[in-house]
From TrEMBL:
Keywords: Glycoprotein, Hydrolase, Protease, Signal. This is Lysosomal Pro-X carboxypeptidase. It comes from the Eukaryota. The keyword Hydrolase applies. One of its GO terms (molecular function) is serine-type exopeptidase activity. Belongs to the peptidase S28 family. Residues 1-23 form the signal peptide.
Length: 489
């Protein structure tokens, strides 16, 4: 086995990474909306597990089952006799087919992680793991949607892993769970709830502290603002000043029609809010997925700052739209009436337990004031589903308050990886908890960047971030196999 990382080297790396200082908010998926995933590799085999609908009750209806999809890549499997490791990727709020082609962390690092098997599991109620009809039907069924929760999801993962280890005769194979964004939250929570199943977790861009007012409401938009300001002070000022210009024009007779013409909308704007929501989303997505080598924030600001001299403020903002979205005959700024599976599912999850209070004040970001109101949010959820959200449940069930004081006493083997250009890093774990609960972050990183497929154009800081994560996981394996050997003597 590979030797465990020396404490001295880890400490040296900690100086570099620990102290170096979705879609719009709501969705946490690691999949950039502009990325078109390739087809799933031929190395993957798809299976379905007969999953328990309700792991926590014993009523007759709780014993209903559904087919849960999981995918295995055994190309590098060393076999049960070698106690080869198992890596389990946790799906999040979307189909696995969107994630697997771009989540390259495991396959890229196969030679350095010893022979292992990869298992990717679909989150219940998403993709092909929807019980009893379509997701739309499930969400509208008040007797079924209550089983759509994170606790049920990680219990699913536990049951599948136990089943597969038995099926593979791999009871002594160590399991590492990996996830990005919401999947990263699930991975860290799984390690806390099921330490007897997984020896460690890599939680990429997991904002587990963006609940119950642990993180300031404006954390997300503060990072978006900083990203643009660091890219260009003039770009930041243009965006900051544009909102009042839009409002002033919208208040004039035929002002909305004028805005529609200036921004070449595919259909006439109904209100100025449609335009502002579009721009809000564009800036947030550009910051959240500010991946190399393109760096979308730089692209947007390049358009804004590169507009011809004398261009008015709306013209400069539109130039940023064109730079980001490309030259088009028109730009669709109205929200689609068709609800994707992700939007349907995530709407329910955030209206039940995953209440992430993202808001902003009047002068703390480059955006107009939009404070989060729990009362308004609760009324909206009541209108949609007839149930109020539970904003304190995540911290009650998984923890979050006083996280350093609590986790250093009972948690181990969790990597919380982040890129500080990711707005969701504001709700991530950025402080060292203990020698084995570690934050690994980079100044220029963005959402889930470390677990995406590597490229020859990757900057050195990203290569190093992944290398650090690999070496820490190697250390976990070394300790596990040493303990296993001791027990077998």
């Amino acid at each position: 086995m590979k030797h465990q990382i020396s404490f001295g080297w880890l400490l040296l790396l900690s100086v570099t990474f620990f102290t170096t200082v979705s879609s719009a908010p709501g969705r946490l998926s690691p999949v950039h909306p502009k990325i078109k995933p390739a087809s799933v590799s031929e190395d993957f085999e798809t299976f379905f597990y007969t999953q328990t609908l309700d792991h926590f009750n014993y009523k007759p209806e709780s014993y209903r089952t559904f087919q849960q999809r999981y995918i295995i890549n055994s190309k590098h499997w060393g076999g049960a006799e070698e106690n080869a490791p198992i890596f389990a990727y946790f799906g999040e709020e979307g189909p696995l087919d969107e994630d697997l082609p771009i989540i390259g962390f495991l396959n890229d690092n196969a030679p350095r992680l010893t022979l292992r098997i990869n298992i990717s599991k679909q989150h219940r109620f998403y993709g092909k793991s929807v019980p009893f009809g379509t997701l739309d039907e499930v969400i509208n069924d008040e007797n079924t949607r209550g089983y759509f929760s994170s606790a049920q999801a990680i219990a699913d993962y536990a049951e599948v892993l136990v089943y597969l280890k038995e099926k593979l005769s791999a009871q002594n194979s160590p399991v590492i769970v990996i996830g990005g964004s919401y999947g990263g939250m699930l991975a860290s929570w799984f390690r806390l709830k099921y330490p007897h199943i997984a020896i460690g977790a890599l939680a990429s861009s997991a904002p587990i502290l963006y609940f119950d007012n642990i993180t300031p409401q404006d954390g997300y938009y503060s990072v978006v603002t900083n990203d643009f300001r660091e890219a260009s002070e003039s770009c930041y000022e243009t965006i900051r000043n544009s909102w009042s210009v839009i409002d002033e024009l919208a208040s004039r007779p035929n002002g909305i029609s004028f805005l529609s013409q200036r921004f070449k909308t595919c259909s006439p704007l109904g209100t100025s809010s449609e335009l502002k929501d579009y721009l809000d989303t564009m800036y947030a997505v550009a910051a959240q997925y500010n991946h190399p080598p393109t760096y979308p924030v730089t692209v947007v600001c390049g358009g804004i700052d590169g507009a011809p001299e004398g261009t008015d403020i709306l013209g400069r903002i539109f130039a940023g739209v064109v730079a980001y979205g490309g030259e088009r005959s028109c730009y669709e700024m109205k929200k689609s009436n068709s609800a994707s599976q992700t939007n349907l599912g995530w709407s329910w999850q955030t209206c039940s337990e995953l209440v992430i209070p993202i808001g902003r004040g009047s002068n703390d970001t480059m955006f107009p004031s939009a404070p989060f109101s729990l009362n308004d949010f609760a009324n909206s959820c009541m209108s949609k589903y007839g149930v109020p959200p539970r904003p304190h449940w995540v911290t009650t069930y998984y923890g979050g308050h006083d996280i350093k004081l609590v986790l250093q006493r009972f948690a181990s083997n969790i990597i919380f990886s982040n890129g500080l250009r990711d707005p969701y890093s504001s709700g991530g774990v950025l402080e060292k908890i203990s020698d084995s609960v570690l934050p690994i972050y980079t100044v220029n990183g963005s959402h889930c960047l470390d677990i995406l497929t590597s490229s020859q154009s990757d900057p050195q800081w990203l290569v190093m971030q992944r290398q650090v994560e690999i070496e820490i996981i190697r250390g976990w394996f070394a300790k596990y196999y040493a303990d296993l050997h001791t027990l077998q003597i």
